[in-house]
Design goal:
The chain has 180 residues and is of the alpha/beta class. Helices cover 46% and strands 19% of the residues.
């Protein structure tokens, strides 16, 4: 299954989001079974080295750590598309998920571009700054966005980037509706 998706409606984005969330439920059941049937060390070994996770789009076994990284990035990308579809009604967007080339989110006409990620902090690995610099360098897109999710707030860091790159909209995505 391709990790490049064109989304034409918010309902399509919601269906994709539900598919990603379903993979988390499958992995949860796998982990519950592993907890019951393994010693502590075997459990940790399996979580780190075995394919106990489910790839969020292709529904095939993968390493749990990889699933976590992909799943949260996909969720941010999907929430970004929903956000953009509300601002630009009638516009279709291409999601470049995983290691697909191009911007993470692009309008089909390429007037809107966005990068997305999730991390422990917006400062992690300089990802937010790198994304903002990349977006800012694009002279063709009319609207540029950097969407991120982090459990940590870094308001001064984010505000400094917004001031340094006023042509890029930096938006923290909430996943509160999905996380209890």
């Amino acid at each position: 299954m391709s990790k490049v998706r064109t989304i034409k409606t918010i309902d399509e984005a919601i269906l994709l989001r539900n598919s990603v969330l379903k993979s988390a439920e499958i992995s949860k059941l796998n982990i519950i079974s592993m907890i019951s049937n393994n010693s502590a060390l075997d459990l940790m070994y399996n979580l780190k080295f075995k394919e106990v996770g489910i790839e969020p789009l292709e529904n095939k076994p993968i390493n749990l750590i990889e699933q976590l990284n992909q799943m949260f990035t996909y969720l941010v990308s999907i929430e970004a598309v929903i956000y953009l579809m509300k601002i630009y009604p009638g516009m279709s967007f291409t999601l470049n998920l995983g290691t697909s080339s191009g911007y993470d989110v692009e309008s089909v006409d390429q007037t809107v571009i966005a990068e997305t990620f999730s991390a422990t902090s917006p400062k992690s690995n300089g990802k937010l700054k790198k994304d903002v610099i990349r977006l800012n360098a694009n002279d063709n897109a009319l609207h540029k966005y950097s969407f991120y999710y982090s459990d940590v707030d870094s308001p001064v860091y984010v505000e400094n980037l917004k001031r340094a790159f006023p042509n890029v909209n930096i938006i923290k995505i909430s996943l509160d509706n999905h996380i209890k």
